[in-house]
Amino acid sequence: MRLSVAAAISHGRVFRRFGGSPRSRLNLLRNLVTALVRHERIEAPWARVDEMRGYAERLIDYAKRGDHDEKAMRMADFWLTEKDLIHKLFKVLAPRYQPHPGKYTRMLQIPNRASVDRAKMAVIELKGNPFPPLIRPQPDSEKTLLNQLLKGYREDMQRAARA
Amino acid sequence: RSSDAGPAKFKPPSKPVIVDKQRQTAERRFLSPEFIPPRGRTNPLKFSVERKDMIQRRKVLSIPEFYVGHILAVTTADPYANGKTSRFVGICIRRGGKGLGATFVLRNVIEDQGVEICFELYNPRIQEIQVLKLEKRLDDNLMYLRDALPEYSTFDVNMKPQSYLDHEEVPVNKLQVRMKPKPWSKRWERPNYNIKGIKFELPEEKMKEAQKWSKPWLEFDMLREYDTSKIEEKIWKEVNEELKK
């Protein structure tokens, strides 16, 4: 009787394991969060970015509490390995996101990594960053049929109004 | 010339502030933990339907506010007992389950035999739940009383209910319990149980060895936290409105 089936079932488990101990998983995500806070836009494998996104948003929620809050300071101290970023988190990022209630990051998929492993990659950026936008919204061109019909209708109305 | 600008302006004495102690009871909000839905992907309709049933039952039987560590007396309907009711007195060790299946375990030592009975809060056979003594303990889970000396789990079956005032806070009993010699049913000295209510008389090396199983990263794992304050407020308002009708 196969007794190890129970170990292989993971119904309802939301955390990915990343092939290591829970401590190493947190260290990996911690490095990614630090890089995101430093550079505000990073590329990484999709699964890691997906795990890290929740932690980054919760970290910003903690930072919004203010740096006098002891718990917020301890969290920032643990999650940001480079200590000059704690100042950036509390003084730059927290005021930037004060008006918004949530959803401070944007995650998009990228073409697979160029190396041999062809890993599924994603880019994650903090909203309001100084770089040019990732997606440029393209307005409809004037030559489409619908736009031409609307333009004709608008001109007819203006001619009727003048006459 | 130094002169005051006319007579000093008359300052009326400050109005007396009447602190109505009975009003303060409304400030202490207690929501029974089985109302709070667990974190998951279930349809909230299930929880709202269950809550309706729970409120219906609470209108019939008044379930008092109680925590782990309180001493309760529960009378249930029993067809095989003379008088058709059976009464059990014990200390609440644990409260588990959510929704209609919420349970609590009462423990007592009767004639040198430890007895634990798991009652369901919304069982229709329960006729009365009476709080005999109000006292919170340092932990949420008193399962270690099984391995503690029996004097800590014995309670008089004919104890009189202690009178308590509504507006006072529930007192916390900082009792440190002494244990029977090892082996115990669980290794209570390990940090994952996080027990503060035992007086460990183990040698220092054993305590240090138990700390090897500590997971210091767990308190920084933000996604494991479940913030229930807003949910609790909403449900508390809903439950109170329904109960007043």
UniProtKB/TrEMBL annotation, chain A:
Q: Does the keyword Membrane apply?
A: no
Q: Which GO terms describe its cellular component?
A: mitochondrial large ribosomal subunit
Q: InterPro entries of this UniProt entry? A: Ribosomal_bL17, Ribosomal_bL17_sf
Which UniProt keyword terms apply here?
Mitochondrion, Ribonucleoprotein, Ribosomal protein, Transit peptide
One GO biological process term is:
translation
Q: Name one Pfam family in it.
A: Ribosomal_L17
Name the Gene Ontology molecular function terms of this record: structural constituent of ribosome
Q: Which family does it belong to?
A: Belongs to the bacterial ribosomal protein bL17 family.
PANTHER family the record matches: LARGE RIBOSOMAL SUBUNIT PROTEIN BL17M, RIBOSOMAL PROTEIN L17
Descriptive protein name: Large ribosomal subunit protein bL17m
TrEMBL record, chain B:
Origin species, per record, is: Crypturellus undulatus
Q: What protein name is recorded for this chain?
A: Large ribosomal subunit protein bL19m
Q: Does the keyword Mitochondrion apply?
A: yes
Against Gene3D superfamilies, the record matches this protein to: 2.30.30.790
Name the UniProt key words of this record, in alphabetical order.
Mitochondrion, Ribonucleoprotein, Ribosomal protein, Transit peptide
**Keyword Protein transport among UniProt keywords:** no
One GO cellular component assignment for this chain's record is: mitochondrial large ribosomal subunit
Chief subcellular location equals mitochondrion
Q: What family is this?
A: Belongs to the bacterial ribosomal protein bL19 family.
Q: Name one GO molecular function term.
A: structural constituent of ribosome
Where is the protein found, in the record's own terms? Mitochondrion
Q: Which gene encodes it?
A: Mrpl19
- Which GO biological process entries does UniProt record here? translation
